[in-house]
Amino acid sequence: MVFKLKIISDRVENFALHIDADAKNTFFELHEAIQDECKYDPSELATFFLADEEWDKGIEIPMFGNKSLKINSLVNMKNAILNDYLKEKEDKLIYVFDVINQKSLYIELNEIVMENKLNTPVVTFNRGLAPLQSSTNHYDTDLLASEDSELQNAFTDFGELEDLNMIYGEMGEVL
Q1: Mean pLDDT estimate for the chain
Q2: Which pLDDT score, from 0 to 100, does residue 76 have?
Q3: Facing residues of 3 across strands?
Q4: Euclidean distance between CA atoms 51 and 146, whole angstroms
Q5: Is 107 strand, coil or helix?
Q6: Whole-angstrom distance, CA of residue 149 vs CA of residue 154
Q7: Which CATH architecture has domain 2-132?
């Protein structure tokens, strides 16, 4: 059985991603397919939530189990099978790809097809640019430019190289 999933964003209007996943695939395999296609940093934490018709979060399926919690402590992306949670067309998931900034993608089961099994989830459609994972992963060029000029000023406070050569003489090659 193959699940045809549609993924959208509330932050990037023209972004859409379609992924076909086998019902026996894990949430971690779906997570990896999304990460790869969206070019997200795999070292960042992510989590899935089951969602109702209004996209309200339900049960969480985290990257790692939490032994300190007594309820659902062993459920995690690596051992949660899609078929155990997705049962019918229009079932919904929320994929939080930037936990710190609470940035999410919205996943809906569009169709269930009885066809050959897939080994791993496959991207069948990709439109637009994925929302940025986190602002800390991307350099602020204005900030870098101001830091570069401050750094340059710090070095020129000691004078130009020609001035130093006049005082100390030419430095020969060392070696």
Answers
A1: 82
A2: 94
A3: 21, 112
A4: 44
A5: strand
A6: 9
A7: Roll (3.10)
Domain boundaries, the chain: 2-132, 139-170
Give CA angle at 53 (39, 114), nearest 5°. 70
Write the pLDDT tens digit of every residue in 36-91.
Answer: 999 999 889 999 999 999 999 999 999 987 665 555 468 899 999 999 999 999 99
Residues in the chain: 175
Distance, CA of 2 to CA of 111 (rounded, Å): 8
Please say whether the beta carbons of 80 and 27 come within 8 A. yes
Half-sphere exposure of 106 (CA within 13 A, CB side): 15
Alpha-carbon span 105 to 129, nearest angstrom: 13
pLDDT at 145: 45
Q: How far is CA 54 from CA 100, 126, 154, in A?
A: 23, 25, 56
d(CA 126, CA 141): 28
Predicted confidence (pLDDT) at residue 170 exceeds the cutoff of 70? no
First to last CA, the chain: 70
Distances (CA, A) of 130 to 4, 78, 86, 125, 144: 19, 24, 24, 13, 24
